[in-house]
Structure formats: C-alpha cells, structure tokens
Design goal:
binds (3S,4R)-3-hydroxy-2-oxopiperidin-4-yl beta-D-xylopyranoside, TIM Barrel, single chain, about 15% strand
Length: about 375
C-alpha cells in the first residue's frame, strides 16, 4: 500500500503550482449566490473551534491566494490557513545556506490582512523523497551527528524566529512513521544517529524557541482498513515522546480519508470505526490534543456520476466528522484545499480509472458548494461547544 499511496508524489511537487489550473479557470460565483452560503469558520467559531484550508502562493489559475475566485472561498470559510508547500524544506531551502521566504511571506501577509491565523507546515517532512535533493546527498563531514544537529536546529530556529508571534502552531515533524510502523530514515536521520534522536531534537528545539506554541506531530494514519500498522506505529511514537519527556502537544490527523473500494450496499467505502475510536481514545488518554490538518476525500473508487458521487463523498465525510467531533480535544479543522480544481489529489496516484477528476473538496470547479460543504456545516452546527 505504501508504494501506491505515496508513489509518484515526488514528481508532482514541481507541478504543484501549475497543476489543475488549465481546465478549471472558471469565473467567481456571483456575490448574491455567495451570501447565502454558510461560513464554515463562523459555524466552527460558535463552537470554540476554527475551520481553515491549505493555500498556495502560485499563479492566479491555481489554489493560490492570487486566484480571486479561490481567495473568495477562503475568505468566506476560513479562519486559519496553512501553506500547501511554501514552508517545506523543498521550497524554503534551495541550498544548505539560504532560505527562500518570499512565497510563504506572501501567504502569511494574505492571512493576516484577512484576519486569519496561519499554521506552520512543516519544520521536517521526514521522508527521503520530501527532503530537498541537496540534503539527501549532503556530505555531513567527519562529525556527522554534530553537523546534522546544526542543520536541523539552524533551520528550526531561523524559521521560528522569523514568524515569532505570528505562527502559534507548527507541524514540527510530518510523517516519520512508515505504514509498516517502523520509523522513516533519511540522510539527516542517519547522520544524527537515528530517527528518534532527530525527531526529539526537532521538538526540543521548537519548544526552546516557542514555549507557548502548539507543537504537533502530523501523520496520515487513517480509519480505512490497511492502516492498522501505521496507527500502531504512531501510537508507539506518541508513547515514546511521553516516556522521554519530548515536548509534543498534539497529534495532527491529516484526514485524507479514502474510498478505495465501493460498497454498493452503503454507497460509500469501508472504514474501521471501532478501531479508529480506540486509536483516538489512546491518543487523548496520553494527553495529546488532536487536529484535523489536511482533510479531503479521495473518491477514486466511486462510480463517476457527479451527483451520486458528491452525495457519497459527503456521507462518508459526515460519518468521519461524527466520530471526530465527539472529541473535545479537536478544535481545529483544516481542509487540504477548498476547490476540486486545485486539489493535489488530481495528481495523486491512483487516478480514477474513468479519467474523471476527483471530487474531493467542499467546492466544485465552478466554485459552487457541494453536498460536502453542507454536511461539514451541519456537522459543525451539531458539534458540542468546546
Ligand atoms: C502535498 C501538496 O498538496 C502537493 O502540492 C505536493 O506536491 C506534495 O505535497 N501530506 C502532507 C502534505 O503532509 O504536505 C502533502 O501536500 C499531502 C500529503
């Protein structure tokens, strides 16, 4: 599963800002129509929660704040944003010495101008294919552990210094648990003497920098069958953090939920609800908060028809939110994009066999809200206050 789920992603980072732009550059909805649509953040806020989305800094035909149609969706629905790629090492670190802050700075400026918070994603995406190629090929010299620690801590202190007081929640480490429950290894983790050493140092450095920020471990273990080992690996990592006194406040649950097989009797896909609740219970029992950091619905196995598909996607999400919102530890819900046209899933393998676009987000290509939007609104409306 690992290979099919993550395969081919490396190729798309370069395309991230241009992907999915061509076919969908539809005009913005009329203001009249827009005013009747619920603001998801407003509904969340009434419950002591926040709703938000990923956004990019690409051109005006992408899921960027520069796209006026997309920006109007963000302004309607979001109280918090996260940069889809612009804070990752691949974007921030063109080489070992320099930082390219400009694209992220623009996203932050857009958020602040519109009174939205911003999350930091991510100080270390700990998978070899998501490290900058210079880092995977880096010569750590005669004292590799010291050099690796220097590189990591310099990165974290530079970024957190720059955004001090403006970013209050970071995905300090992203995806260091593999789907077979072992820990990922990269050039920098080998140089420093092991993944735990690297990850612990990342959190310790972030905490020393930001005593009051929310420090998050973020990963994609999910509720579908096939995630058992991944979930177990994440629990083990979280237990280890507590045993070692590593300062981690919350688990970021990416929530790229998936309909991998179609069950005509339910109209959606299988999930392990009981096991998922057990997982969440164990996480909160260790005193971690939880966040939904990257929500979308991969509908690749659903039949093509749009209206039936949109209903199935919405039903599947509704079932998911019914579980998640039971946990008062959940206060932030972020979608990984608001509009189907610009979703990363359009490039993520496997693609739909019928060649149609995935319908993964709250809004369709013409910026019209889909049943997923109304189900999210309803879920937030019925959530208990926190
Ligand atoms: C994805 C972006 O959406 C793509 O544009 C990029 O090519 C690859 O990364 N888990 C994460 C996110 O933590 O950072 C990923 O974002 C999606 C999966």
């Amino acid at each position: 599963m690992e290979m099919t789920r993550r395969e081919g992603l490396a190729a798309v980072l370069a395309l991230a800002t241009t992907a999915c732009s061509g076919n969908y550059s539809s005009p913005v909805n009329s203001v009249g129509a827009a005013s009747t649509i619920d603001s998801l953040h407003k509904l969340a806020k009434a419950k002591g929660m926040r709703f938000g989305s990923a956004v990019g800094a690409g051109h005006s035909g992408s899921g960027s704040f520069r796209n006026t149609g997309y920006a109007s969706l963000l302004k309607r629905d979001c109280g918090i944003l996260v940069a889809e790629n612009e804070m990752k090492w691949q974007s921030l670190r063109p080489d070992p010495l320099s930082f390219n802050f400009a694209p992220f700075d623009e996203i932050l400026a857009f958020a602040e101008k519109n009174n939205m918070a911003t999350r930091g994603h991510t100080l270390m995406w700990h998978r070899p294919q998501w490290q900058p190629s210079w880092l995977e090929a880096y010569d750590f010299g005669t004292n590799p552990a010291t050099e690796a620690a220097r590189l990591l801590t310099t990165h974290i202190t530079t970024v957190t210094d720059r955004y001090r007081g403006r970013i209050l929640s970071y995905d300090v480490v992203n995806e260091t648990v593999m789907e077979d429950s072992t820990l990922a290894q990269t050039a920098i983790s080998r140089a420093i003497g092991g993944t735990e050493t690297l990850v612990d140092l990342a959190f310790q450095t972030a905490r020393a920098q930001l005593p009051d920020a929310q420090l998050v471990y973020n990963d994609y273990m999910s509720w579908e069958p096939g995630n058992e080992k991944h979930r177990a690996g994440v629990l083990k990592l979280l237990e280890g953090f507590r045993a070692r006194g590593v300062p981690v406040d919350a688990l970021g649950i990416q929530s790229h939920i998936r309909i991998d097989t179609y069950d005509p009797s339910t109209g959606t896909g299988p999930r392990q609800e009981r096991e998922w609740r057990k997982f969440l219970d164990e996480v909160v029992a260790m005193n971690y908060d939880i966040l939904i950091t990257e929500f979308d619905v991969n509908d690749q196995a659903l039949p093509g028809d749009f209206s039936a598909r949109d209903r199935s996607v919405a039903d599947y999400a509704k079932a998911y939110f019914e579980v998640m919102l039971d946990y008062p530890q959940l206060k932030d819900v972020l979608a990984w994009g608001m509009c189907d046209s610009y979703s990363w899933l359009q490039e993520f393998k496997p693609l739909r066999t019928d060649g149609l676009a995935k319908r993964a987000c709250p809004y369709s290509a013409d910026f019209a809200p889909k049943p997923l939007h109304s189900k999210l609104a309803a879920a937030l409306q019925t959530a208990s206050a926190r």
